[in-house]
Amino acid sequence: MDLANIFGNLAFILIAASFMVKDMLWLRSLSVTASFASLFYNFTITETPLWTPIFWNFFFITLNIYHVTNILLASRVLAFTPKEIELYDLLFSSLSPLEFMKLNKLCTWKKADIGDILIKEGERVESLMLIYNGCCDIVVIDKDTKKQKSVAELKDGQFIGEMSFLTEKNATATVIVHHPTEFLTWNQSELKSLMSRNPSLVFSLQKAMGTQITDALKSKKITQDSPVA
């Protein structure tokens, strides 16, 4: 295989690779590299350069470099607190810093004391919450005794109200603060509106919440018919 065909195949390989990445900076960068490889191919594959694909590859390179520059400039001016950096590394590393900034702008940091009720069983849940530091009990009403019983604990890095967020149904359990807790809260409708404009947020949040739900169902403390807040 001659050099021209190597670069021609490389261009298509890089294009295919760009479809497999979710980070926008990587996607743009792979697209630029693929266009350069395609330029070489179209300049050398025939005696006369193929000017139509060459022109369009120059256009795609210019467009993608413009977007890469904007992404890099935006990343440079972003400033996160140590708490936000910790959350980013723990749960949201699949997002670009700019996407995380958008998510972060919508949230409110709050604190709750022992005994505070964050979600009540049977009621509509307006917010999605994420524990930064603390501990909460998931409590349900026992069908036999009609008394409250704790079925699980939620700790650092875990969501509160994730089932209601995903299903849009009322809470299936009550969440009571067990130790002083600091948490983030997002208005559900505002967060879903942001997610509709940023598909990568959907992937990141669903992955984090899906892992939590799976772990809860596998836990010895929760059977499959037990509610998860």
Detail the topology: elements first, then pairings.
Blueprint: H1 3-18, H2 24-44, H3 51-77, H4 82-91, H5 97-106, E1 108-112, E2 117-119, E3 127-141, E4 148-154, E5 159-160, H6 162-167, E6 174-187, H7 188-197, H8 199-218
Antiparallel strand pairs: 1-6, 2-6, 3-4, 3-5, 3-6
Helix pairs in contact: 1-2, 2-3, 7-8
Question: What this model shows, in words?
Answer:
There is one protein chain. The chain is of the alpha+beta class. The protein folds into 2 domains: 3-77; 82-218, Sandwich (Jelly Rolls). Helix content is 52%, strand content 20%. Strands 1, 2, 3, 4, 5 and 6 form a 6-stranded antiparallel sheet that branches. Strand 3 (127-141) and strand 4 form a beta hairpin. The chain is elongated, with a radius of gyration of 24 Å.
Number of helices: 8
How many domains, in number, for the residues?
2
Q: Total strand count, please?
A: 6
Q: How does the helix and strand content classify structurally?
A: alpha+beta
Assign the CATH class of the largest domain. Answer: Mainly Beta
Which homologous superfamily in CATH is the superfamily of the largest domain?
Jelly Rolls
> Between the first and last Cα atoms, what is the distance in angstroms?
59 Å
Low-confidence runs of at least 5 consecutive residues: 220-226
Strand content range: 15-25%
